[in-house]
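chain below, 148 aa
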Amino acid sequence: MNIWLISMIVVTLIIVGLAVFMAIRVRKRRETPNYRGWFYIGICWILLGIATKNPFFYIMSAAFVIIRLANKDKWREEKTWADLSPAEKKLKIILISVSVVLLITSVVFLSAIRLLFKIKMLPRIMQIIRFVTFDFYSCNSYIRVIRG
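prediction:
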């Protein structure tokens, strides 16, 4: 048998097994879905759809928002900061700090790339990287790129 066919069968069985496990687990718990979370996912997907101009994200975000509007009375009450335990407070502070650092890093990185395009340096850097990686053992191409 083909190795890809065997791999696909194994992956399919794993996915089906996980789906059955999750279905049994949800039935035992009888936990209501977090509609507030679905609403936040819908808002994020609207922004993602705008950024990527992908209609799939618009449709899915509309579905999440419609589910939210249909079940607004079933929203769970969120804990306030005073209700959180010290461990939960510490975890939230760490997550917020990491998110802010990642956001600032991505803005700086994208600004640097924009600046390099503006001064027409990034295509030159990419050309050097391409020659060095693809033609690593030949010094002639590297020297040719640097001299222009």
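Residues 1-31 form one domain. The chain has three domains: 1-31, 33-78, 85-148.
thats it, cya
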